[in-house]
Amino acid sequence: MSRSQLHLTVAAVVHYNNKFLFVEEIDKQSQLRVLNQPAGHVEENEDLISAICRELLEETGLNLAPTHWLGISQLHAANDHRYVRVNFIFEPSQLPEHYRSHDPDILALHWYSQQQLIDSGMAVRSQLVLDAIQLFQQGVRLPLNLIQPTR
To answer: Locate the Nudix hydrolase domain: which residues (predicted)?
Structure first.
C-alpha cells in the first residue's frame, strides 16, 4: 500500500435534542445517496480539532466546538484505500435558527435518532457511521486534552 492510499480523516458526531446530524451525499464509488456524519480529510498544516471544526462549518454551516472525542476508527475501503478516522463529539446546548451547507457535494442535512436513521432506509457511507453512533450511545467520552497539540 502506498502512502497515497492512506487517509487521515475527521468526523463530527453532532447530538442535539436526542438526534444526530447527518449529511446526505453521493457515494463516489456506488453513486448512491448515502448518509454520513460531517467528515473529511485533514488538510496539510492543519491540526485535528481545526480540521473537524472546518469540516463541520463547510458541510453544515454550524460553527461549534467539540466537547469530547470518541476515539479512532479504521476502514479498509472497497477502493483498497485505508482510512484512519478520528471521531469528535459536538453537543450544543442550542443551535442557530438558520444554517446550511457551504459544500456543493452535500445534498441535504438530516436530524435522526438512531431508530429514525434505521427507519429512513437510507444507506450509510460506511460502517464507521454506525460504529460512531454506537460508541456515543455507550457513553464513550474521551477528554480533548488527550490529543496533544501540534508541535
So the answer is: 5-137
